[in-house]
Amino acid sequence: MSFLDQNRTSPDRSVKKRQPRWSELWLNKKTTPLKHVVFNIQLPDTKDPKNNNNHQNSNKSLISNFSGSDRTLLLNDDILLRILSKLPVSQRNTNSLVCKRWLNLQGRLVRSLKVLDWDFIESGRLISRFPNLSNVDLISGCLVSSRDSPLLLSHKLVSLHVDSWFSSFHVQNYLLLPTDMVDRGIKALASGCPNLRRLVVIGASELGLLSVAEECLTLQELELHKCSDNVLRGIAACENLQILKLVGNMDGFYSSLVSDIGLTILAQGCKRLVKLELSSCEGSFDGIKAIGQCCQMLEELTFSDHRMDGGWLAALSYCENLKTLRFVSCKRIDPSPGPDEYLGSCPALERLQLQKCQLRDKKSVRAMFRVCEAVREVVFQDCWGLDNDMFSLASVCRRIKFLSLEGCSLLTTEGLESAVLSWTELQDLRVVSCKNIKDSEVSPALSTLFSILKELKWRPDTKSLLASNLAGTGMGKRGGKFFKKT
Fold it and tell me: Is residue 232 part of a domain?
């Protein structure tokens, strides 16, 4: 007997039966369970109109449920936020109208905002709606504007709607929000947006700015209107501040005083300043000297319509790392600069820019070029009083590589040539809208200089340029062929 036979006939050994597989049951014709299953899942008879209607209604309900479901609910907030951030900025308003969830997520992507209504801050809606703001402009919100009035008043950086009874008295007393209200608003903003990096505000006090300095440790840029010496105590607490613009006085709107006291406080507190703009601020030698000695990282300094006392220009020599010096809308540079031996110079200065300034005082302009004798780029734009004598004073700057003249109507070709030929390192020259500089007066020496320049933009007289472009077209001849008599 074989081993297999013994195994089959052995009564003592218990054999375990293997459970049949689904494939075996399906292929085995003797099995009946699957037939019952198949019979139960048979499709309804389409010939029966009653069954057909029920079947169509069930399909419609499934399709409606599928189409009405929000597939974005399967994504968490982080993934959906990442997807929304990749979409164009022009679609933000449209995306925020989809649902409340998208509205809240879209608000997290907003980084810059200009507030028009102060109630939006005090009600807390600003923080709940835009929790990740880094750039906030509060100028328009700090002004009490009559929105129903069709009269729009614009003055430099300020624009608002006013009533017919408007006067400068009403601006200073009624059209600016009270200081305590402004402080409450910026305190709420600072507590809700600790990652704030840029802030523009008008009429804040020392306490309000102190709260911003305590809450927003990453604040880097601040633009403060209606600034005074006391307010600068709060700004001095912003240790990481790098860009600062102070507006002390705006004619017809408000007036405040920034003197050497405030500039000294500012210099001792904000030692990491890189860019500083003083608009309508007063001061003297001592204030600018304190800024130069304390703010060692200062690279750009702008004076806009300044009211500095005489002799302040010599303090620029203490700004050892200054690279850009800009004058904007200044009626004077320095009324009494003092002797040349006390002026000094800025050794690292690279750019000197003058925009809409009055250059009528020869002594003042001469002192300015003495201080800026190391400059490499000089820009004159719409400056009054820049004639041949004034421009000749720039010949002391021997290292000029770039010169731009725009809107200087008193300067002639002879005055330009006398200074330009002395600059051996000149590489780029731009002359635009200077009507007394004529193409016909260009000398051979000046033409030779033009040929070796790396870049030349020569459009001194727009009328002659227009006439050359219209040559041969028949236009500009008192009607020409367009207005013939019949």
Answer: yes
The answer to whether position 42 is within a domain reads: no
206 and 86, same structural domain? no
Residue 283 sits in which domain range? 191-467
> What predicted TM-score, i.e. pTM, was given to this entire model?
0.75
Within-domain flag for 176? no
Region 318-333: mean pLDDT is 94
Question: What is the tens place of the pLDDT at every residue in 270-311?
Answer: 999 999 999 989 999 999 999 999 999 999 999 999 889 989
Highest mean pLDDT among 39-43, 86-90, 353-357: 353-357
For the ranges 84-93, 243-252, 289-298, 372-381, the lowest mean pLDDT is seen at 84-93
What's the chain look like in SS3?
CCHHHHHHHCCCCCCCCCCCCHHHHHHCCCCCHHHHHHHHCCCCCCCCHHHHHHHHHHHHHHHHHHHHCCHHHHCCHHHHHHHHHHCCHHHHHHHCCCCHHHHHHHHHHCCEEECCCCHHHHCCHHHHHCCCCCEEECCHHHECCCCCCCEEEEECCEEEEECCCCCHHHHHHCCECCHHHHHHHHHHHHHHCCCCCEEEEECCCHHHHHHHHHHCCCCCEEEEECCCCCHHHHHCCCCCCCEEEEECEECCCEECCCCHHHHHHHHHHCCCCCEEEEECCEECHHHHHHHHHHCCCCCEEEEECCEECCCHHHHHHHCCCCCEEEEECCCCCCCCCCCHHHCCCCCCCCEEEEECCECCCHHHHHHHHHHCCCCCEEEEECCECCCHHHHHHHHHCCCCCEEEEECCCCCCHHHHHHHHCCCCCCCEEEEECCCCCCHHHCCHHHHHHHHHCCEEEEECCHHHHHHHHCCCCCCCCCCHHHCCCC
pLDDT at 482: 42
